[in-house]
């Protein structure tokens, strides 16, 4: 039996509307996020949690950030506004600490952000909800947020149109072209994989240099696991008889194994009025409860030798 590793605990991105939203709008936001996190394959690295709190309605982004900071919620957040339903975009807002860091950096670079009375510059980006999961992974991995923004940065810039990666991950062709989320490392047992050293077959991998061997799941094993049987480069020595091997393969978008309705199920509820079926995955790794109490689930960030966001990330 082909073994796909169990999903690990996804990082939780808390979202706060500054306007009242209907359940249908909340469901649409979750659906868009789940499309972009490739949740259909049951291994999302991040999930969205919507907290519809009336006390935050009509507040500015800066005021929401201040209110949450006072409550001990210091991690990055998502803000849902009155345009989200129409443009399928949300605001990804950095922590106060990281915003201060980027302000300092841009002052040093000669591009000081615009400042407004009573506020410190709050760094954020307006992004299509579907494209946030992948861009979030890039940002927590070290990508500077200013790469997505116009400089000098203006915290009140409406950022229209929202940031887009130019693809639609609800479409098979666009989704399967993303090597980050469309592949998975698997373990295959003897009889579930084939090797080949045929020159024409080896050229199919399009690797340079051409590998000495290529490997694939047998069509039967791939079909049973919901994966594709495609030739992949094999750079290591051939395994001994009876050995299990590990290599990366693509999910099969058309497999009935991955049929879904755009939602991920869970049982617990969040603090405040949460949207039903709010997106937390519960299989294999245990998802965090929705009442985060300020816990920060981002990876620690190193910025020019300085550690930001030193709190412990989520664990299973």
Topology summary:
Elements: E1 11-17, H1 23-36, E2 46-52, H2 61-70, E3 77-80, H3 84-87, E4 89-93, H4 96-108, E5 124-128, H5 132-140, H6 172-176, E6 183-188, E7 193-196, H7 199-203, E8 213-217, H8 219-225, E9 232-234, E10 245-250, E11 273-274, E12 301-303, E13 306-308
Parallel strand pairs: 1-2, 1-3
Antiparallel strand pairs: 2-11, 3-4, 4-5, 6-10, 7-8, 8-9, 12-13
Task: Give your account of this protein's structure.
It is built from eight helices and 13 strands. By secondary structure, the protein is of the alpha+beta class. The strands form four sheets. Strands 5-4-3-1-2-11 form a six-stranded mixed β-sheet, sandwiched between helices. It has a three-stranded antiparallel β-sheet with strand order 7-8-9. A hairpin with a 2-residue loop joins strand 12 (301-303) and strand 13. The chain is elongated and about 70 Å long.
Number of strands: 13
Count of individual helical segments: 8
Global geometry: elongated
Characterize the largest beta sheet: strand count, sense, and whether it forms a barrel: 6 strands, mixed
Which percent bin holds the helix content? 10-25%
């Amino acid at each position: 039996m082909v073994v796909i590793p169990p999903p690990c605990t996804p990082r939780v991105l808390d979202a706060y509307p500054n306007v009242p939203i209907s359940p249908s709008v909340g469901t649409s936001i979750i659906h868009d996020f789940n499309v972009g996190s490739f949740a259909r394959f049951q291994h999302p690295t991040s999930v969205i949690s919507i907290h519809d709190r009336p006390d935050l309605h009509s507040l500015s982004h800066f005021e929401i950030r201040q209110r949450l900071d006072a409550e001990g919620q210091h991690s990055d957040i998502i803000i849902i506004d009155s345009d989200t339903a129409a443009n399928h975009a949300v605001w990804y807002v950095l922590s106060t600490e990281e915003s201060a860091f980027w302000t300092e950096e841009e002052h040093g670079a000669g591009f000081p952000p615009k400042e407004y009375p009573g506020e410190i510059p709050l760094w954020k980006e307006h992004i299509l909800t579907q494209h946030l999961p992948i861009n979030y992974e890039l940002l927590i991995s070290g990508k500077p947020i200013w790469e997505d923004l116009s400089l000098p940065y203006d915290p009140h810039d409406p950022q229209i149109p929202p940031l887009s990666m130019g693809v639609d991950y609800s479409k098979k062709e666009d989704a399967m072209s993303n090597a980050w989320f469309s592949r998975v490392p698997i373990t295959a047992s003897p009889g579930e994989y084939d090797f080949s050293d045929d020159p024409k077959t080896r050229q199919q991998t399009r690797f340079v240099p051409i590998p000495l061997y290529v490997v694939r799941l047998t069509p039967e094993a791939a079909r049973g696991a919901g994966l594709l049987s495609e030739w992949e480069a094999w750079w290591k020595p051939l395994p001994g008889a009876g050995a299990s091997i590990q290599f990366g393969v693509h999910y099969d978008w058309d497999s009935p194994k991955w049929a879904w309705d755009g939602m991920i199920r869970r049982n617990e509820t969040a603090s405040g009025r949460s949207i039903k079926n709010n997106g937390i995955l519960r299989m294999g790794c245990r998802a965090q409860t929705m009442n985060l109490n300020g816990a920060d689930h981002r990876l620690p960030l190193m910025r020019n030798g300085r550690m930001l966001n030193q709190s412990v990330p989520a664990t299973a």
